[in-house]
Design a protein that fits this description.
The chain has 138 residues and is of the alpha+beta class. The chain has four helices and seven strands.
Length: 138
């Protein structure tokens, strides 16, 4: 593969925004559960500010960080899987099952793709299925 054929995939933007909203609005649950009294006091506002900053930090970190990279050396998705050690890639529900050689044994590794959009999921599955279809050694 050439350097131009390096494939990089990022987390789905709606999923990032959804998670950031969950983080930012988590203290609201304390009001709904009755753990905090109404009206909000200064400590409550501080907690809202902190969770809003955490949500902003989460979205900024995940917006530009690639979640999956595929190039001539192998696959990076949380961990690195060398191309020489990957025998098969089979689609599963919102994931890909890699048959890899690890520590001298053939093992199955499930790579979750729940962070992708539907289009990216189809593209990733097609790329991996086309590239990794070697015979598994006994």
């Amino acid at each position: 593969m050439e350097e131009d054929s390096k494939q990089v995939f990022y987390a789905s933007k709606p999923r990032i925004l959804h998670m950031a909203a969950n983080i930012a609005l988590a203290p609201l649950l304390l009001y709904l559960l009755g753990a905090w009294s109404w009206p909000p006091q200064l400590p409550h506002y501080i907690v809202f500010a902190i969770t809003a900053l955490l949500a902003l930090q989460y979205s900024r970190r995940h917006w530009r960080t690639p979640r999956l990279e595929l190039d001539e050396s192998g696959l990076r998705c949380g961990a690195f899987y060398a191309a020489d050690n990957i025998y098969k890639a089979e689609p599963a529900i919102r994931s890909v099952v890699l048959t890899i050689l690890k520590d001298g044994k053939v093992k199955d590794k499930v790579v979750s793709l729940g962070w992708t959009s539907k289009e990216d999921y189809k593209t990733i599955v097609a790329l991996l299925s086309d590239r990794f279809q070697r015979e598994v050694p006994k």
